[in-house]
Amino acid sequence: MAETPKIRFGVVGCADIARKVSHAVALAPKAALHAVGSRSINKASAFAAANGFPASAKVYGSYEALLDDPEVDAVYMPLPTGLHVRWAVLAATKKKHVLLEKPVALNVAEFDEIIAACESNGVQLMDGTMWMHHPRTSKMKEFLSDANRFGQLRSIHTNFSFAADADFLENDIRVKPDLDALGALGDAGWYCLRAILWAANYELPKTVIALRNPELNQVGVILSCGATLCWEDGKVATFHCSFLSNLTMDITAVGTKGTLHVHDFIIPYEEKEASFYAATESGFDDLVTKWVSQPSKHIIKTDIPQEALMVNEFARLVADIKFNNARPEKKWPTISRKTQLVVDAVKASIERGFEPVQIQE
Amino acid sequence: MAETPKIRFGVVGCADIARKVSHAVALAPKAALHAVGSRSINKASAFAAANGFPASAKVYGSYEALLDDPEVDAVYMPLPTGLHVRWAVLAATKKKHVLLEKPVALNVAEFDEIIAACESNGVQLMDGTMWMHHPRTSKMKEFLSDANRFGQLRSIHTNFSFAADADFLENDIRVKPDLDALGALGDAGWYCLRAILWAANYELPKTVIALRNPELNQVGVILSCGATLCWEDGKVATFHCSFLSNLTMDITAVGTKGTLHVHDFIIPYEEKEASFYAATESGFDDLVTKWVSQPSKHIIKTDIPQEALMVNEFARLVADIKFNNARPEKKWPTISRKTQLVVDAVKASIERGFEPVQIQE
Asked: B341 pLDDT exceeds 90?
């Protein structure tokens, strides 16, 4: 059987994150770097030269030109969120499969425009939430799904913060209301909310209430915020995200029988291995002066880093559509949309003075 | 110089926790087990025999009789919270120093009755929050107070849960409205709130809002709950406590420059050593595929377990009053009262349908 040809990627925009994902495309067995487009042809050329594109790669001075290249199968789109609806819809119309940076959209209405375009053109949509593709994530999920080891999820806390420098806080697209109006909520909060939904088997919470005093910059973009999420069955979640605190990224999930701790869930400490801590039926000694068992550390190795695994999974789905007439996989846009719904609810709660917001699917 | 005589302890009540603290009194260099009192003389005798009391120890068939023993310097009082105000006030009136189990009282009004009695009788009041006395706690505080390593606290999450068995959920005093009406909030939540206040240098939050859907038993006692706390300066805290989830006890404190993680803050995994994780100015490599530095693990050894250190610190203060005419140390009742104020605020928020409650000192 002949080997399936690689999926040819076009990178739409030269954002910093595009460097990492271009390297990931180069690493992913099922993908190949085919083209890069920027509003400046010089910038595109410099980007291609610096980021492992082959000599044969196409370099375009506009996004439209890249999207018109019939050899491009799929695009990776790291544009500012405010531009997603325009360019992702156009890409879908041009029959390009879309790997879209998170947050997918500024709100679920825009999200729905994007997914409608992808569905009507038969192209795959996936967001750029890399940690979903690390083998550690499925190992953690096995633990959370194990009635004997973890039981039922009862509470979960997630956080993601990093201490942005003065240049970031002044100039990064993520602090600009016309580019990434969701600020830290869309950037860092997206991961926290995805982790909560992931742990809750993507069951949407009933009620979302933002924490008081989120920090905003002078033009009203969120620099830090958080929320509490409640489900009908009594499960609760809290999260906090920030551009103003030391780099931290935790999931603490507590079930009736077990506990999961992970401290580097978005970007693992190391590229080739990652760990988490699992505890089951923890308890004290008779006099309650120490624990009888401690959480166990689980280490998961991976030869291919998570961003390349993401690209490869996306390329696998695209190849299945291209060569086997498969339908686009609904799982990825479905969980993206749920994440977007909860992001929207947190934003709405902040805007309504921290009122409870009911989630409606 | 003659050695200062040991402080003679009377244990008022034979609750399960009294076993641990009796052992701690025996271990504490400045303290001695002198007497135990129970409503049943047989129970008191059996307790003394089983818990390392010397043959000379007094055994009383009522709490009053123990409090009338002129040789008792100090009492340890593990009675149900609903009985604290009666017996702690009587103990103070009898000039006994009072080491009182937490929660100190059912509400701050009762707390104030207890502290007024202690102050007017010149006796020391301290609550039984053992982890405050572990040397790890002061090491963690050094880290949190270090402007270069931790910066300013911005967010903190704490939790404490344990999976109570059917017998506990049916019969323990902590699920009885007439004995420990604060349930999981007073028992497990007390630690979570103390940890938050401790990390915030005991600055009271401005606003407390309980999480929705706390779990209550059939007679209305809290089995699980949580809250968000906000300060004027934008700091935020969240906590969750439960009798219905796997044993878990974390502090995750994030500052502008550093992060603290500890997973066994109330009862250390081991009796003779305990650890925490500290990170400072954490960051990624250039391509954001891994961290350039990981949190460092700090291990603190102690020959004497934290409960004995607590007893010893209490005995030191009592000895200073008894032999050196010192005044009672205000630090301990002050932080107890602040903890009680926040416990009350969470309770009030639950009772008012999760409305924000302003804290007034």
From this structure: yes
